[in-house]
C-alpha cells in the first residue's frame, strides 16, 4: 500500500470513529414529568435527571396537604426502596431529596398524600436511564 493509501485509510478510520462517538455520545436526559389523581388531589411528579442514582424528586399537589411521601418500586424485578418524606418547598410544592433509583428501567412511584380528610395514593410510572446519561 502506498503512503497516500495509508493516509486515506487512517483518515477514513478516524472519520468512522468520530461518527460513532457522535452517534453514541450521552445526551442530557429530558426530565420525567407525569401527573395523576390521588383522591381529590391533583399530583404532578418531576424527576429532573431520570438516571440511575439518588435523585431529587419534585411533587406538586393541589388541596390541603399535611405530608407527602414518595415510594418507588420496580415490580417486575421485585425491588423497592425506602419511602422518602418530601419537604415543603413552596405552597403546593414538595421536594423529596435523594430518592434512590438503583437500576435502569421502569419504576412505579407511589405518591401518598396525607391531608386533613385522610390519606390518598397515586402510582406514577417513571423510566430511569442507565448511569452516565445525566444532564
From TrEMBL:
Annotated YtkA-like domain residues: 61-111
InterPro entries xref list: YtkA-like_dom (IPR032693)
Name under which the protein is recorded: YtkA-like domain-containing protein
